[in-house]
Automatic annotation (TrEMBL):
SMART domains: AAA. One of its GO terms (molecular function) is ATP binding. Residues 11-241 form the ABC transporter domain. Signal peptide: none annotated. This is ABC transporter ATP-binding protein. The keyword Transport applies. InterPro entries: AAA+_ATPase, ABC_transporter-like_ATP-bd, ABC_transporter-like_CS, ABC_transporter_ATP-bind, P-loop_NTPase. Belongs to the ABC transporter superfamily. Keywords: ATP-binding, Nucleotide-binding, Transport. Pfam families: ABC_tran.
Length: 268
């Protein structure tokens, strides 16, 4: 496909409202993620991040508002009009299958023709540094390697977008740092649209083109990270943006707490 013909794989969420009994969790949320953009979602516990992901994934169809992937509308109750790759906090690998077979398993359930599996696996096993470990079983992999394998699995199905839900929060900081750098290399190489959920302000700043801070059912604030890539953890400009993001996150958490104390989020 030529550059000009490249599909639009952005996400557009408009006026999203989600209620649970006695509680409005998303209150008219508007959010866009551009084609190939890396957006980090940051928000205090309970602000609705997982609820939003469940809706975007098509797992929850009981909402109001609209969701578009690349201009294609999501029909509540139907499959999302985009292929979505997932990464969660835990790798969710099948323990009885080798690394390679775990990826095959995902491919078997995808639309990718079998004739392309070999090339795809070669590419992503190489990109993640897991080439020598294709025959290993999940219990033989370290936490970081297991998460790399789930990244291979997520990318192999050639997703339009990647949803990453705190994928590095269960890892030690050194491993997480390496994986963030590698993820950015892979993102540059593949141009995927990424929505990345995290509780870590500095992680969000290091990774994102933009950090969206959620609170009380909507966007509290958004911060563009105008720091050139490749980024360096010790970059003073990046640290400054991280401080702003962190302060915004704390502000959002405090606002959410005050609202909860007042009971303003109750729909009664
Ligand atoms: N199935 C459900 N039934 C009722 N309430 C729910 C349900 N799922 C989530 N909630 C409520 O909705 C709110 C948002 O939950 P959600 O899990 O989306 O938050 P979160 O931002 O992902 O939190 P965390 O960062 O702790 O994972 C919470 O108050 C939660 O109790």
């Amino acid at each position: 496909m030529s550059q000009e013909m490249e599909a639009d794989n952005g996400i557009r969420v408009e006026g999203l409202i989600k209620e649970f009994p006695g509680q409005r969790v998303l209150d008219g949320l508007n959010l866009t993620v551009g084609n190939g953009e890396f957006v980090c979602l940051l928000g205090p516990s309970g602000c609705g991040k997982s609820t939003l992901l469940n809706i975007l994934s098509g797992l929850d169809s009981d909402y109001r508002g609209s969701v578009h992937f690349g201009g294609r509308p999501m029909v509540p109750g139907g499959k999302p009009p985009a292929t979505i790759g997932y990464l969660f906090q835990e790798p969710r690998l099948l323990p009885w299958l080798s690394a390679e077979r775990n990826v095959d398993f995902a491919l078997e359930n995808s639309r990718v023709p079998r004739s392309r599996w070999g090339d795809i696996k070669d590419r992503y096993f190489a990109l993640t540094g897991l080439q020598p470990f294709r025959d290993y079983y999940p219990h033989e992999l370290s936490g970081g390697m297991a998460q790399r394998l789930s990244l291979v699995r997520a990318l192999a199905i050639e997703p339009d977008v990647l949803f990453m839900d705190e994928p590095f929060s269960g890892l030690d900081e050194l491993t997480a740092r390496r994986l963030r750098v590698d993820l950015l290399d892979i993102w540059r190489e593949t141009g995927k649209t990424i929505l990345f959920i995290t509780h870590n302000s500095y992680e969000a700043t290091f990774l994102g083109d933009r950090v969206v801070v959620l609170s009380q059912g909507g966007i509290h604030n958004q911060i563009s990270v105008d720091v050139p890539r490749p980024r360096d953890y010790d970059d003073a400009a990046l640290f400054q943006v991280g401080k702003t993001v962190s302060a915004t996150f704390i502000e959002a958490a405090e606002a959410a707490e005050r609202a909860r104390a007042r009971g303003t989020r109750s729909s009664h």
